[in-house]
Amino acid sequence: MSAPVTVPPKSHSSLFNTFARAPLEFERGEGAWVFTPSGEAYLDFSAGIAVNSLGHANPVLVAALAEQAGKIWHTSNLFRIPGQERLAERLADASFADRVFFANSGAEANECAIKTARRYHFVNGHPERFRIITVEGAFHGRTLATLAAGGQEKYLEGFGPKADGFDQVPFGDIEAVKAAITPETAAIMVEPIQGEGGVRSFPPGYFKEIRALCDAHGLLLVMDEVQTGVGRTGKLFAYEWTGVTPDIVSLAKGIGGGFPLGACLATEEAAKGMTPGTHGTTFGGNPLAMAVGNAVLDVVLADGFLDHVRETGLYLKQRLAALVDQHPTVFDGVRGEGLLVGLHAAKPVPEVVAALRAQHMLAAGAGDNVVRLLPPLTIGKAEVDAALEKLEAACRAFEPAPATHQA
Ligand SMILES: *Cc1c(COP(=O)(O)O)cnc(C)c1O
């Protein structure tokens, strides 16, 4: 008989230590609510960072995924995938685009956008035109190229030389864009509203001038709508608010409703260099993702859905404006469009997010000292009212209790 072997309990997680996670987990969700294993309910105004666009366990999406799961999951892009043809056609019909490439994430959608822009100039006989102008404070993803596009030092540090070909200009500064254009410039890449950067909108007229510069210099206009797209701002695409039409748009987050899905949309002209063999993906656009993506569009494109998002967004912003007036030591501004809303905090954002969590409400931090509210697009007044109650309670927790007077 040998002595029993006791395995010492691990004192650490086996995961890469890349995330500073909240000490919370959720077992199920329903609409805008998520539930811990012990049954505690949290109001989800982060929606997996703008991903659960139609709420948790949406019956339309659950049915679409379950039905497809019983048929076929994956075939690869060696074969035709009818769901891709259909989703691409619907996205094209509803937008500026003629062509769509499906990927699995926002960063991958942006990689495709960057490659498409460079390849366009290459097939036009200008391989030297590969540089892309991007905006400070942008977030385009965590691959080596999209990190270089975002240009944020804190994310680039320690990962070797920054990938060449990206020129950052200060936020909202048209003169800086003009000055950055050279004979090597291929495109300007910009979020219609900076999401991670702090729900920052550009000055009025900015995009008209950007489009004019693109036209004058033969540049492609790439809009990163990974966060703003698919109804988040109350229009199907946020570029519709800008009054200009892009040449290339990247999507992800909301289009899969929680299933990993990204897409790169382009005009026929902009996509003309992307011929067989120039780009690819194993998983991108697989039948499961396409079933869910088409179901998301069924809901978002239904009559009145985007009107509802705009109305709910307006109601939320009005109530938040009143909150800011009443609690200026906690919040000092409201910004954003539709249900992409930022509360500018007068306290450190991690403390505010933790105070909301203590009230059982989930929100996401962002740059520029902003707390982001990104609820499912399906919420109504009841969920906004519930959120305001929790926000009020969180504000009160920051404020000194009123002095009690004794007789
Ligand atoms: C989240 C985000 C990305 C990156 O998406 P991933 O799916 O994490 O790769 C890129 N651009 C914008 C604007 C985003 O908000």
| H and E string | EEEHHHEHEHHEHEEEHEHEEHHEEHEEEH
Determine the fraction of residues in helical runs and give it as a percent range: 25-40%
Strand order of the largest sheet: 4-12-11-10-7-5-6
Distance between the termini: 79 Å
Instruction: Provide the CATH architecture of the largest domain.
Output: 3-Layer(aba) Sandwich
Domain module tally: 2
CATH superfamily of the largest domain: Type I PLP-dependent aspartate aminotransferase-like (Major domain)
Please, how many helices? 13
User: How would you describe the shape?
Assistant: globular
Instruction: Indicate the radius of gyration in whole angstroms.
Output: 23 Å
Strand content: 15-25%
The mean pLDDT is: 96
- Main beta sheet: strand number and arrangement? 7 strands, mixed
* CATH fold label of the largest domain: Aspartate Aminotransferase, domain 2
Give the class from helix and strand content and strand pairing.
alpha/beta
CATH top level label of the largest domain = Alpha Beta
Low-confidence region ranges: none
Distinct ligands, ions and cofactors found in the model: pyridoxal-5'-phosphate
| Strand element count | 17
Explain the overall architecture.
- The chain is α/β, with parallel strands linked by helices and 407 residues long.
- It folds into two domains: 28-51 and 304-398, Aspartate Aminotransferase, domain 1, CATH 3.90.1150.10; 60-300, 3-Layer(aba) Sandwich (Aspartate Aminotransferase, domain 2), CATH 3.40.640.
- The chain contains 13 helices and 17 strands.
- A hairpin with a 5-residue loop joins strand 8 and strand 9 (200-201).
- The protein is globular and about 80 Å long.
- The model has no long low-confidence stretch (mean pLDDT 96).
- It binds pyridoxal-5'-phosphate.
- Residues 105-107, 110, 139-141, 191, 195-196, 224, 226-227, 252-253 line the site of pyridoxal-5'-phosphate.
- It is found in: Cytoplasm.
- Pathway: Amino-acid biosynthesis; L-arginine biosynthesis; N(2)-acetyl-L-ornithine from L-glutamate: step 4/4.
- One of its GO terms (biological process) is L-arginine biosynthetic process.
- This is Acetylornithine aminotransferase.
